[in-house]
Design brief:
The chain has 29 helices and no strands. It has 592 residues and is mainly α.
Length: 592
């Protein structure tokens, strides 16, 4: 066990503060399901933005980045950097619409946008599908990372790690509801970022690495430093760059990067004070998440290539670690074993904070679906607020138990990332267009969800036994094509949503766009006035979206260039980022 007395004091002190915040907010959270799951809809943009970042700052993320860098170099991160496009689409096209909708969860949206029994079925089915199944997969992924950190740094078994971390997190997350989660996230983010930077500094200082200059010039590392892929090797470039940037970001549903917004991102926007706070929170999230945060992890991953060139080296260094968990992603916690006393406690605490932040969000978010969109809607519509909060706490425990069990079945972080991408393949475009095209209905959405899931099951459990295996990116493209074709055909062939529901949706959200022209032409003059769009037009939205993407990508690469000591190109990119952000600010100011 690598932790010493001072390290344990730091870790236990963090637990005490987190539980204190939970206790402080528990009374208010118990008043109603809106307080418990939505913090009363009165939170500030900066708290919500940081909370989103803290949620994605999970223990499995540095492991995932390490896996990617050791396998495909720095450029391999485009498989997730591409989701910035999704995030900026949410900023300029969907943030205000979600806040304006007035729903408690994004699942409640279905009966606002669609009509009939199929809409009700879709709401209930998706509440269980996402609230339990998808959250279990995410919880399993972050718990797997906790297992690997516990095995390397604490010398405890996977089951012991899950019992300790799971019990502490469930107690904390069930006390204060979303308000407690958001307030604690602010503390957790600071610890997580500080811990990541400290880990990067110690990694570069390792005797085998010998400083930043030696790291950059090491023959095993220098070939992996390119931020853009080697376009001379198109086979790799297609997989890690072109497919993510041209197909994956708009076609795949992935938690935290849902096309059109969804999940805990929507939960945070719905908790905002007003539309402007919702808009600003998502913009802040995208800046910090994509541009600022990744580089400390990347530095540790690069250093690990020198210290642990192969998996055998990691196994030799940690002979008591289970052979099942020795994969490339474990190189990150392996590098943390070199931290000195005191700093070890800070970094381990930062990882625990990251774990708790992600886990508590997914537990609260998943429970909100189970309570608001399944139990209250279909089981007990007349239930009291006290009952709803209690059911939410029971659901929290159930989701954690299932997630912990699944964590014991996974082997690495990249594995679960690929599973989630394939399951959501082809659904993304529907989630974007359902706001802007009246013809999409409950049948088309249900089709997209079922078909994408069936295709994922086929590739995971059928195809490999009867045919030659295919690459993951080919599976993704096939899944996108089949799913998209299926839901578009169903949208045209099935009965449309009732006119009254569509008109009411327009009146509430005031969504703009030519995709609603047919419905607007059937409105009375009063209805048309009530549904008059207040968001600025598509051309300005698209321009703002493009400039925002350029600004954040320029900042991302600029920071990387400076970290890797390419100061001239880094300075030029910083200037581009500043100009682009200034233009975005000007557009936002005019918009408001």
């Amino acid at each position: 066990m690598l932790l010493q007395g001072i390290d344990w004091i730091i870790l236990i002190g963090f637990f005490a503060v987190s539980l204190g915040i939970g206790l402080y907010t528990a009374k208010k959270a118990s008043k109603s399901q809106e307080e418990y799951f939505n913090a009363g809809g009165n939170m500030s943009w900066w708290l919500l933005g940081i909370s989103m970042v803290a949620t994605t700052f999970s223990t499995d993320t540095p492991n995932l980045v390490t896996d990617i860098v050791r396998t495909n170099g720095v450029a391999g991160n485009w498989v997730w950097w591409s989701f910035l496009l999704t995030g900026m689409l949410t900023v300029f096209f969907f943030a205000k619409l979600w806040k304006r909708s007035g729903v408690l969860t994004d699942i409640e949206f279905y009966e606002l946008r669609y009509s009939g029994k199929l809409a009700a079925f879709l709401r209930g089915f998706r509440a269980i599908y996402l609230g339990i199944f998808f959250n279990v997969v995410i919880i399993a992924s972050v718990s797997l990372a906790a297992i690997k950190i516990g095995g390397i740094l604490l010398g405890i078994s996977p089951l012991q790690t899950l019992l300790i971390a799971g019990i502490v997190t469930v107690i904390y997350s069930s006390l204060g509801g979303l308000r407690g989660v958001v307030l604690t996230d602010f503390l957790q983010f600071g610890l997580s970022l500080g811990g990541a930077i400290a880990a990067a500094y110690i990694a570069v200082s390792h005797p085998a690495v010998g400083g930043m200059d030696n790291l950059i010039n090491h023959p095993d590392v220098s070939s992996k430093l390119h931020i853009l892929p080697d376009f001379g090797n198109m086979e790799i470039a297609v997989v890690i760059f072109f497919i993510p940037l041209f197909v994956q970001w708009w076609s795949v549903w992935y938690p935290g990067a849902e096309p059109g917004g969804g999940g805990y991102v929507v939960q945070r926007m719905l908790a905002a004070k007003n539309e402007k706070h919702a808009f600003s929170s998502v913009l802040l999230f995208n800046i910090v998440h994509y541009a600022i945060r990744p580089w400390p992890w990347i530095i540790v991953a690069l250093a690990s290539i020198i210290v642990f060139p192969s998996l055998d080296d990691i196994q030799t260094a940690f002979p008591n670690a289970s052979a099942q968990i020795i994969k490339d992603d474990i190189a990150y916690p392996a590098m943390l074993s070199f931290l000195p006393v005191g700093l070890m406690g800070l970094v381990v605490t930062s990882l625990v904070a990251a774990y708790m932040s992600t886990l508590s969000t997914h537990l609260n978010w998943g429970a909100s679906y189970v309570v608001n969109d399944f139990y209250k809607r279909f089981i007990n519509p007349k239930s009291s607020q006290k009952t709803l909060v209690n059911v939410g706490r029971i659901a929290t425990v159930l989701i954690m138990l299932l997630g912990g069990y699944m964590a014991l079945q996974l082997e690495n972080a990249l594995q679960s990332f690929s599973i989630l991408l394939q399951i959501g393949a082809g659904t993304g475009l529907l989630y974007i267009l359902r706001w802007y095209w009246w013809r999409i209905n409950a049948a088309s959405e249900l089709t997209a969800m079922v078909v994408s899931f069936m295709v994922a099951l086929y590739f995971a459990f059928v195809h490999q036994y009867y045919f030659e295996s295919v690459e993951t990116h080919i599976e993704l493209i096939v899944g996108v094509a089949i799913t998209t074709f299926s839901w578009v055909m169903v949208a045209y062939l099935s009965s449309p949503t009732s006119k009254s529901v569509l008109i009411n949706f327009l009146k509430i959200t005031k969504v703009p766009g030519r995709g609603w022209a047919k419905i607007r032409s059937q409105m009375t003059s009063q209805e048309a006035a009530d549904a008059d769009p207040t968001l600025f037009g598509f051309q300005k939205a698209l321009f703002s979206f493009a400039i925002g993407v350029i600004a954040i990508y320029a900042l991302l690469i600029a920071i990387g260039k400076v970290v890797l000591k390419s100061y001239t190109s880094g300075a030029g990119l910083f200037m581009l980022a500043i100009v682009a952000f200034a233009l975005v600010y000007r557009l936002i100011d005019k918009k408001e």
